[in-house]
Amino acid sequence: MTSGFFNGIERIQYEGVDSQNPMAFRHYNPDEVILGKRMEDHLRFAVAWWHSFAWEGGDPFGGPTLERPWHPQDDMGRARMKADIAFEMFELLGQPYFCWHDADIRPEQGNFAENLNALEEITNYIGEKMQVSGTKLLWGTANMFSHRRWMSGASTNPDPDVFAYAAATVKSCIDATHKLGGENYVLWGGREGYETLLNTDLKTELDHMGRFLNMVVEYKHKIGFKGTILVEPKPQEPSKHQYDYDAATCIGFLRKYGLENEVKLNLEQGHAILAGHSFEHEIAVAAAEGMLGSIDMNRNDYQSGWDTDQFPNNTPEVALAYYYILKAGGFTTGGTNFDAKIRRQSIDAVDLVSAHIGGMDICARGLKAAAAMIEDGGLDAALSDRYSGWNTPKAASMLESSLEQVYDRVIDEDINPAPKSGRQEILENYVNRFV
């Protein structure tokens, strides 16, 4: 028996590029084989519980616009109803995964013990639904940014009691993720940062954050959790400055605290844009250091200048993201989650489903374009040609030389190099052939 929330919406099918049906996939065919692997296994889609079911449609200037049958989200009965409807949507879309924050799936109860009881109750209920549906958990995480207790951070809070509360919260969420067979656990430090340096001891806060993350890794191994621990970069908002600014900052932090072999990155397109980067830049940086874990596939409104969390709709951007993911070997435990929300004027159930259809199709188009570029080999050939000078023994040996030896070579051989074109426009035209 269904809830009736999705009345009139049938299971979404793949109908191909010529379909005029707005409630069908035109590009996402889970069984299509791309580079020797099923499309579903490449993309590993996951519905994000928070924006899809917990978000009520508010913004900084106005209250909720989305009136759902599980609102207000303040008791366990409505939490179970929300879970029922979530799994109905997973079934409609054929989504293999989902992901959650603890505060998305259970109501706030006021103290830790009551929140823990609520979390255990709802994850038991979700576990039963997972067994029936076959839908899996991509990752779980703790919301340590919404409640007022986190206003000065969680692991970086100047109050040791808040640090303790954060540690207990993360333990409970790792336990729940482990129980549900989650393939990753994510930590996002939305308030791990500062509003002003006038009341902030940077070194102390970073040291506490480093120790906190080491405690998480130690606990993961103690309980035998086989999933990957992920951290998620973002430069600011809600904090003025967040310590997990971008991929490079996070990698430096992880190396400083001895975590580079234990923790990988969950990268979000919208966060990359806020940091002044492209999404493919963040992916390439993480991949170069062996720290690419998973992605949040959303976008920002480039006119707004803040984290608008919109569904992807730009094939060229998405294609380049998947190009660098595929070049790095693809996902292992990670995947593609839609950390995206419908607009607050899109109030109907069909809007929620349609947003996911569109996002999944754009990702499928991007994946196919990325795979075609890899099979064609044009970008690889251009890179190989540009760096070919380093393939000579003389050039290679220079990296083992001293500064004085290189100096002597320039003098002895009268080296006076002429600039060589980077061919950027030609390569941009090349990419556009595929997207």
Automatic annotation (TrEMBL):
GO biological process, one term: D-xylose metabolic process
GO annotation, cellular component aspect: cytoplasm
Enzyme class name: isomerase
Name of this chain's protein: Xylose isomerase
Sequence positions that bind Mg(2+) 1: 232, 268, 296, 339
PANTHER family reported for this sequence: PTHR48408, XYLOSE ISOMERASE
Residues binding Mg(2+) 2: 268, 271, 307, 309
Molecular function terms from GO: magnesium ion binding; xylose isomerase activity
Gene: xylA
Subcellular location, record wording: Cytoplasm
Record's keyword terms, sorted: Carbohydrate metabolism, Cytoplasm, Isomerase, Magnesium, Metal-binding, Xylose metabolism
Highest taxon of source: Bacteria
Catalytic reactions on record: alpha-D-xylose = alpha-D-xylulofuranose
InterPro entries: Xyl_isomerase-like_sf, Xylose_isom_bac, Xylose_isomerase
Active site: 101, 104
NCBIfam families per the UniProt record, alphabetical: PRK05474.1, xylose_isom_A
Cofactor comment: Binds 2 magnesium ions per subunit.
Assembly information from the UniProt record: Homotetramer.
The UniProt record lists the keyword Isomerase: yes
UniProt KW Cytoplasm keyword: yes
Cofactor(s) for this UniProt protein: Mg(2+)
EC number: 5.3.1.5
Lineage: Bacteria, Pseudomonadati, Pseudomonadota, Alphaproteobacteria, Rhodobacterales
Family membership noted in the UniProt record: Belongs to the xylose isomerase family.
